[in-house]
Amino acid sequence: xxxxxxxxxxxxxxxxxxxxxxxxxxxxxxxxxxxxxxxxxxxxxxxxxxxxxxxxxxxxxxxxxxxxxxxxxxxxxxxxxxxxxxxxxxxxxxxxxxxxxxxxxxxxxxxxxxxxxxxxxxxxxxxxxxxxxxxxxxxxxxxxxxxxxxxxxxxxxxxxxxxxxxxxxxxxxxxxxxxxxxxxxxxxxxxxxxxxxxxxxxxxxxxxxxxxxxxxxxxxxxxxxxxxxxx
Length: 231
What we know:
10-stranded mixed sheet, Immunoglobulin-like, mainly beta
């Protein structure tokens, strides 16, 4: 017996017991109404291979992201893929531009919060990695890198098949430590001749006390509320 292609309760089973192979004489009452409930099932796996920030790897910059993953099991043509981005990436749009050599040209993409939903991703059934399918590679426009040099967070990819108009999960995978952006740069001030004027003091005489120092510099990126500067 093969389990359903998605996490969905089975149709009902009927059990009958007979005393011979010709099924002429029952030895027990017929048992009906048996099902395998979806709560007893688990989705297949998705290997999330990589996440790349394409146009900038620097903190806070707007960029496109390319994610590569491989689901184990088949997905129908009229299915759905959901990609939940890490909590430290800000997806600031409700729509997205989708680029992929793997998906069908008719695939559409919307963003709600941190979730990217790709509908109708294939023109025929995707057979899944267990049957030798190629990795799925998707580029999504519409996000900003984390505010600081930190892990982007946990990414989750789920695939869904639709049955009678309702989505049922097929495969699921979660991965962390996929992407950490590069820190920004601090620029010391300079005068018109290019001389560094980042540090200004009242005196350079050795041994002077209670000397006032001033640092003049430009920060290339925003410092979030609650952040701090260390000199």
